[in-house]
Request: fold
Amino acid sequence: MTATRTAPALSVRDLTVTYADGYTALDGVDLEVPAGERWAVVGRSGSGKTTLVRAVLGLLPPGTTVTGSIRLDGRELLGLPEPQLRELRGRAIGYVPQDPYAACDPLRTVGHHVAEAWWTHRLTPPPGRIAADLGGVGIDDAARRAAGHPHTWSGGMLQRATIVAGTAHSPPLTLADEPSSALDAELADDVLRLVRERSGALLLVSHDLTLVARHADHVLVLADGRVAERGPAATLLSAPCAPSTHELLDAHAPALRRTSTGTPGPILLRARDLVRRYGDVTAVDGASVTLRAGEVLGVVGRSGSGKSTLARLLAGMERPDAGSVVIGDGGRSRPGFVMPVFQDPVASLDRRWPLWRTLTEPLRARGERVRRADARQAAASMLARVGLAGIDPDRRPATLSVGQAQRVAIARALAARPGLLVADEPTASLDVVTAAAITTLLRELADNGTALVVVTHDRQRIAGYADRLLTMSDGRAEELRLVDTSAADD
Reply:
């Protein structure tokens, strides 16, 4: 008897994707994920990773040209009508998006967000299933918290809820696009194990090479929309051949410790005994912060510990229920003195505006009149500063990867020449090469006199350039002073 060959869970052949503006995001990509196997796609921001996922799901923007073949368990997906694709999403293809806030309806509860994975297919969630699944990914008091709206959840907590929704039906194939970018390392491993348990085959998109090594059997490396190399994870990550893979691995090495090159200046931020509550949840409980010009304060802690809430309070975007925040030297500040970098970079950019308008918005906000030609030229310079020299300033945010959108958001903040920069997970969506460059840029910004508050789950990276660390736990803050080991590098 001849054994019957089982079709791969996913087969991509000669896939080319060109957006409406003429930009080719993928060029002749081949990929095969056998049933039950775990593959990872890695590469720099803008290399085409998210475009590949969207192409498989049939979620590319209107006007996009797609050629080649995408087969799910032998069934061709390209050209399928939208109703048929909708039936496959969730049940045959699980999806965990990179941006959990964009995946949620802000007017609905998180419980509704998870339940929609059932209702979309005319099914009813089993009694207690949603609370049990949320509890299984580390959400405390899950039944009560599920009744809250997305803005009352941290990015990491909301990502876990989105994972529960994306794998609700234990699909034969799950596409996970940076599912752990907002999670601390320990929780990221737990969540990836859960995704693996609840799925058949897995296609993981990630810039975290350590995570990829632990959770993928095979790796495909993309560079500028093309396949640079592929192979078993253990082999490829230890002995790569392609220059782009070498670059990723070199940048993933621990960063050298870099601290201030000068004496800290005047106090620019004074926060005392801050308290912030959302209903009966106390997100920040008695936190105090003092920050001088030229200092970098890192804020670390588990997902849901209150880091992002504290950042919003320090930036003046929310009012505390108790305590006080004084910003500026002597309580005085100018327009653009405080600039935020949000955890959700895509939502922070106006989708209707070309990039040049977004990037020059801070100039207009402080009263400068900029001609369109000058604005484009200024925007191109700002993009080059954050490693996006090849990006057309006339592009819209929808054509960018999440990592590219984050760099645009950072460039916009820097355009205001802020005295205080409050950045919430500024490198979480970036590949390791870009993250290292942005880290250097932030440290240089501080060395030139800007005070920085950087919220992150990446303790190793922030310890490489922060002056002090503030550890959050259940809304409470404990400050740790880092030991300067830079002399040991000589």
Remarks:
- The domain at 10-251 is CATH 3.40.50.300 (Rossmann fold).
